[in-house]
Design goal:
Structural class: alpha/beta
Largest sheet: 5 strands, mixed
Strand order of the largest sheet: 3-2-1-4-5
Distance between the termini: 17 Å
Oligomer: single chain
CATH class of one domain: Alpha Beta
Number of helices: 12
Amino acid sequence: MMISLLIESGSSKSDCIIFQGDKVIDRFETAGLNPTTMDWPIILDIILDIKQKSRHEVSSIFFYGSGVRFETKDKLAECFKKYFEIEQIEIFSDLLAAVRACTQGAEGIVCILGTGSNSCLSDGHQITHQKISLGYILGDEGSANDLGKKLITNYYYNVLKAEIRVKLESQFPNLSSNFITEFYNSNFKSALLGQFGKFVVENKSNPQMEDIVYLCLNSFYHRRLSYYSDYADLPIYFVGSVAYHLQEEIQKVISPYGFQKILFSKKPIDDLLRYHIKHERN
């Protein structure tokens, strides 16, 4: 029976499962890869790491990842074929991973709020409507990137009060030295911003951090969800670490607009595997 490798990758990390039929053979984590924000040599290094950790000869690969666009799919498939000498390599977006994992084939609205953000309307198998995703520089409203950018700008504009400022500096001591230059020269800008976003979430009880949370979540609704207000009777699913830790805040923001069936999933890889086994489709 065919052995398959299922990969669900965000900008920060990748979850990998090797399975045969309906049985999991192995699972592991590795660095996340994003063909929109990362250089190809770095992506090749990450794929090599996946190959080295696989420990099994796989016959097919199903990759779902952030930053996957029409113009990057073929190139990404070529990168996998450099280390995996197989023909069946299917490349999909992380949003489609969220769709299939959450809905299990039923109609719904699906949102990602993790390192990045996205949203769509789906029939349960494919995306039926989606607004363009602008990435961490121009978009990613409500994401860890967005939260992190707001925190960093508040820090350097000297808006933060002493207590939270001291706590931030103790956790990120390079902020007071050469951080800006290091940030702009980094190949991992999205992941760096995500670390600051995590700080905001972890300290959301602080009034200034709470303000950032609600500012970003309201931006997410108006830019990413308001288009689906006519479908508010459908279940709406939120995937990602930010969504998982801000469940109460998300419900407060979107419930007044009629969304009542609000569900959350922190890590969709197991449900994505269940979808693949159930529907036997790629």
